[in-house]
Fold:
Amino acid sequence: MASGKDNFYANWRTNGCAPGLREEAAGPPEKLVQAIWQHQRILRGELKTADGTRLRVLHPGFASAEGGPDFRGAVLQFEHEKPVSGDVEVDLQTSGWHAHGHDTNANFKNVILHVVWDKPKNPRLAIRGEPVVLVLKDYLDSPVSELAPALEQGSGLPDNLRGKCSAPLRELSGAQLLEILNAAARVRLENKAGAILARAKITGWEQALWENLFRALGYKHNAWPMQALAESKSRWSARVATGESRAFEIQAQLLGVGGLLPYELTRSQKASDTFLRRTWDVWWRERDAFADCTLPKTIWKFHGLRPANHPQRRLALASHWLASKNLVSKLEDWVAKQIPDGGAALPRRLAGRQVGPANQKLLESLHEIFTVERDQFWSWHWTFNSVRMTKPQPLLGAARVTDLAVNVVLPWLWIRAKEGGNEKIIREVERRFFAWPAAEDNSILKLARQRLLGMAAGRSSTVLNGAARQQGLMQIVRDFCDHSNAICADCRFPELVKAQFDVARGLTIPAAD
Ligand code: SF4
Structure:
């Protein structure tokens, strides 16, 4: 394949045929401006903000994948003042600050620098209520036409912005790295189990399980309203009839107490309106009895939620679990039963203590317990307002089962066995925890892989081939990164890693890669 000058496609681009790469264009795409900032392709020693203040970028911050400002946790120094940490927003124009509603959005209150491509057309407007502005166009280290092809490949963290621990971690063998991740994962398992125990001492084991299942169904956005609903379980579950409509009645109570029942019919979706009327028929009779614990709708966060994670749908799922009445005994049977090994094994060179084969069968067997056959409404609708789907969708996907396993089911079974002195179950839960297949990727893991493990893509994905190792990495982020800043100030993790493996040198399994 032709490369360099012979590559006609590359020539199209460098000759200015692609929009946004021409010097004379109104401005490059915002994504490119963000990449220039992230990779600091600017004259770093010469930066001055729009009002003439000297600026030193100690760290540009981490690209945010979850809405809000474009970069979180930047460390900047203005003139000779003390460095400050905060967020950075990137826009093409200063007017974007107001036009995009950042001035009224609470998520943007920690923005300390507004990086823009071009000078404000009207400087007086630019300073009104805005954070300090840096005009990037004035400080590029190369022409845009050169920067664009160079940066489009580099969505990862630049080498010089990796964490201080990335170098010592790279020195470790695969087995040594696993040792750290597994040790951190064990801490995470025990921490979760400890929190469950504290709650179980107050409410009992079964209630503690339900509260944690509800929290997990709330995911990170809605964990607390879900917890509040579970805490009032004894009240709403006591008023539900037995029989075939039990799941539906529980659902009506949950949606009602949760403040999630719409007041308006869609008037366009007949099936939705019929179902909503039926649900209200149940909730009308009950709602006065729950006036003191009904949640306000405003407590829920809907922004950025995938339809599958909508709390209405999650509560429908919980109603089926509750209606079946024997979830706890099913979990007890599950942990006592032999589950044959299956799925992909970790490579031998990574085999170490507490790392068994990633066992797909474990996931499948727990999925069976939590799976709901069919809900007459929710299998066909994402929310009350959505149109009927052409194919029914499961109320629970495999990815969520892994979250339930590592965050709730395994810690709950483990601590119950520990309190009861049941060594056999303790060992079996630990085996399952360390053999559980990897969970879905998330923004914490993505950043940690780059920042701590140096984005050695092949190696990190092999090492993180298991939910426990992912949990371990997240624990390190929580214990160290969350207490430091983007420039790793005062973080002791690198020195701890060095000390641990200097001492243990020769005792650990030698690197095979
Ligand atoms: S804060 Fe500590 S653990 Fe996190 S990346 Fe920096 S050195 Fe590593």
About this structure: Residues 16-25, 343-356, 506-513 have pLDDT under 50 and may be disordered. The pocket of iron/sulfur cluster is lined by residues 163-165, 451-452, 476, 480-481, 484, 488, 491, 493-494 (CB under 6 Å). The chain has 21 helices and six strands.
